[in-house]
Design a protein that fits this description.
single chain; elongated; 7 helices; Beta-Lactamase; five-stranded antiparallel β-sheet; six-stranded antiparallel β-sheet; alpha+beta; 48% helix; 11 strands
């Protein structure tokens, strides 16, 4: 063998050994790091799921708590109003009011007495039962009201007339009752007054003004600056707190939001299911949100609590759970 052939053989042997060592190293690294990567990915997905479940559970608990409180308060209002129209004193006072002159001193005395009794009718601790009231005749004319300027007004052409005239022992969330509450959300609790034989003489309506409803929404948004909440009325209006004025205002929902809420509440009303449902949709600003929605039969309205999905992702990043 020539000296050139010997040198070539000596070069090939170290190169071969180096290549083999590199292959073994890469193989070992693959078998070592791939399981680690898979485990890390699984841990990330599990943590993300658990965190999402935690946020959802928190929103559901908040919503359920507020629904329970509302349910108890509304039932108490309905029972108290129904008991009130059954009292013998109410019967005599109503007869006097119907037969009397609305401008007489006796009429004013009856109005004042009725207003006082409505406000102090076994109130909840720290709260009056009703802020205002009115007594409507079967023809839709308001005969008597805690606000004298309402007296003589007709609700016969109002979209709420049929609800008021044909409901009994019920409460409704109503937005924008013309001439009474323009662009405001109130609760109207209805009790029909009937003579013996079932002939309706009038309808007594107790009104809970929006301050009580604002408190419900404020409780739902108190835990996070990215949260929001709103009521959904029977006619599909979304009412939330304006962050600037802190007043209740109507929202302009996205089509996705409207569609999902309408379908969800329809299913709840038909199925009698009051368990909060989880929803995902883009709001009117095209931002993705997570929401919990529930229907409250005693209020004839929906309640929605939602959180900005981008804020949710930011929380994941802060915890090292998102890319």
């Amino acid at each position: 063998m020539t000296s050139i052939q010997k040198a070539s053989a000596e070069v090939r042997q170290p190169l071969h050994r180096t290549s083999l060592a590199r292959s073994l190293t890469l193989t070992l690294m693959a078998f070592t790091f791939i399981p680690i990567i898979l485990m890390a990915g699984a841990a990330y997905l599990r943590s993300r799921t658990l965190f999402g479940d935690q946020v959802t559970a928190q929103m559901q608990n908040q919503l359920t708590n507020q629904l329970n409180q509302l349910d108890l308060a509304i039932k108490a209002k309905q029972i108290r109003l129904d008991n009130f129209v059954r009292q013998p004193d109410f019967d005599s006072e109503l007869d006097s009011a119907i037969a009397g002159d609305p401008h007489s001193a006796n009429f004013s005395t009856i109005r004042d007495n009725l207003s006082e009794q409505m406000r102090t009718l076994t109130p909840q601790v720290g709260n009056i039962t009703f802020n205002q009231f009115f007594l409507m005749l079967p023809n839709g004319i308001i005969l008597m009201a805690s606000q004298p300027r309402w007296e003589g007004l007709s609700l016969a052409n109002s979209q709420f007339y049929q609800i008021i005239a044909n409901s009994n022992d019920q409460t409704f969330a109503a937005y924008n009752i013309p001439a009474l509450y323009n662009n405001q959300l109130v609760l109207i609790t209805i009790a029909q007054y009937q003579k013996k034989g079932g002939l309706r003489q009038g309808t007594l309506v107790g009104i809970t003004e929006q301050q009580s409803l604002q408190a419900v929404l404020q409780n739902l948004v108190s835990l996070s600056s990215s949260s929001n909440a709103y009521f959904v009325t029977l006619d599909g209006k979304l009412i939330a707190i304006d962050p600037h004025t802190m007043e209740l205002v109507a929202l302009n929902p996205s089509s996705s939001q409207n569609t999902q809420l309408a379908a969800t509440f329809k299913a709840m009303m038909n199925g009698g299911n009051n368990t909060p449902a989880s929803l995902k949709f883009d709001n009117s600003n095209n931002l993705p949100v997570l929401a919990q929605a529930a229907w409250l039969p005693d209020m004839n309205a929906g309640l929605v609590g939602k959180s900005n999905k981008m804020q949710f992702s930011a929380s994941l990043i802060a915890l090292g759970l998102s890319s």
